Amino acid sequence: MGNVLVFAEHQHHKFPKSTQVAIAAGKEAARIVGGDCYAVILGKGIDALANELAEYGVKKVFSVDDAAFEHYLAGTYAAAVTQLVKEKGVEIIVAAATAAGKDLLPRAAALLGAGMASEVVTFNADGTFERPMYAGNAVATVKLEGSPKVVTVRATAMDPATKGGGKAEIEKVSISLDAAAQAVKFVSFSETKSNRPVLTEARIIVSGGRALKSAENFKTVLEPLVDVLGAAMGASRAAVDAGFVPNDLQIGQTGKVVAPDLYIAVGISGAIQHVAGMKDSKTIVAINKDEEAPIFQVADYGLVADLFKAVPELKEELEKLKH
Amino acid sequence: MKILVTVKRVPDPNAAIKVKPDGSGIVTENLKYVVNPFDEIGIEEALRLKGKGGEAEVVLVSVGGKASSEQLRTGLAMGADRAILVLAEQELDSLAVARIFEKIARDEKADLVLMGKQAIDDDANQTGQMLAALLGWPQATFASKAEGLDSENEKKGIPGVVISDGKGAQVAREVDGGLETIQLPLPAVVTVDLRLNTPRYASLPGIMKARKKEMKEIPVDSLGVDVTPKAKVLKLAPPPARQAGRKVGSVQELVQVLHTEAKVI
Predict the structure, then answer these.
(1) Is the CB of residue B259 less than 8 Å away from at least one CB of chain A?
(2) Which one of A197, A257, A271, A315 has the largest count of C-beta atoms within 10 Å of its C-beta?
(3) What is the pLDDT of residue A322?
């Protein structure tokens, strides 16, 4: 039947850019297999979101609106996705490689006995997929046998889908859940509060490494630069592990993968694991006092300097430019 | 309580990985192999849950060639009780590995399976979630320590995964935008993230003791599990190289090139 189902994740009553990328990927996959692109949204009180989703040029929106789906949980969501795939003749299931997408899709794949490719960056015309391996040191061409097939797509892989071209039909779907699927209880969510742009959506990112030396220095040295640029703040694993900043700021192989227009790496040596998460940025700037630091091999512009001098100076120069 | 911990043999994360010219794989000459770093965190968590009183048995399981016994030995030297090596030389995908672990988890009657959230070779981040689905068990992925790695609890070696009465687990998970806490009944699969704990090193007495610990080898064919891969890697290619940039002499010059040349500010 060759249809594609996109898991349309929403956060704070809106669709993040990663969901729009997943929709774009779903449409691309549907074009390759010659089928239709559907999207599914799950939650409680999601009529407005389902209506919005219907404007992204998909063929149909399935809406699962039920108190059991108020919080994302792998067990309930995987049961719903699996039921839809079986009922609607879906060949390819697509989600963004976000925390929820990575948690959900492998579970759904196993329930369906399906092969899966993670963090896909290219959908080839012959139906194969390209994805990075070994911290981005290799790009694998992967073939998934049988049907259905399951893929998560990297949020930097393609341009997000845009609205326009009419409104799709919305079909309300009810899901039968067994006790096992509902065994997990949501307890709490401790949100990292920030007024800055979301890392994966920011046009400019300023990232700090271990050389900043303390949480205090992130605040007093790095943050003023971040804010004068209206940027998002990121960090290397070393800085996160040292407890300088919260974990969800980590950029790299095992953290977030970003590709902003401008990426400024401050006091980051440039381990392969970090580079894997930012090397697709349009322009990369590195500030490091060690001129041999590997980060300079990927930077478009490198400044060998003591960050504690260079960063405040850079902030001042940028302020001048603004005025 | 019985805790099963999965262990994968992977190239040293600090090694420079090169793709073979024919794209059939990576260059393995002189490559050092280690325990997948996430799996080390899984082993550490299991040992903490086992506690000094030894309330739990910690069983390691790996799938791969004979050489994987080195990594299992490392885990035994850290303090795990025994190990199982499922011998399989062929290419396996995540689903096949999950099916093998499913069989082992059932045979062992495990109460908890701890796994690294991803292996740093294929970076798939799939097997734990697949295993939970196949077993019909709940899952908690990306387990973290709510109090952080610089906390008193971490210094005291207290586990981040909280088990109550051997019946349920409370897990803090690293998700987009913060930390989520969920409660799940056992048996369950928990995959661990970087900031759950700091793994111990194997001590010399630990290494000596590990030599005498049981390591059972099971040929994969004897398990009666379908291991035909659904996901096949056809070829590998080196990533597109990034054009080398240049050094600038001052902050003023940096601002100027970003403004007039790169036009990003």
Answers:
(1) yes
(2) A257
(3) 82
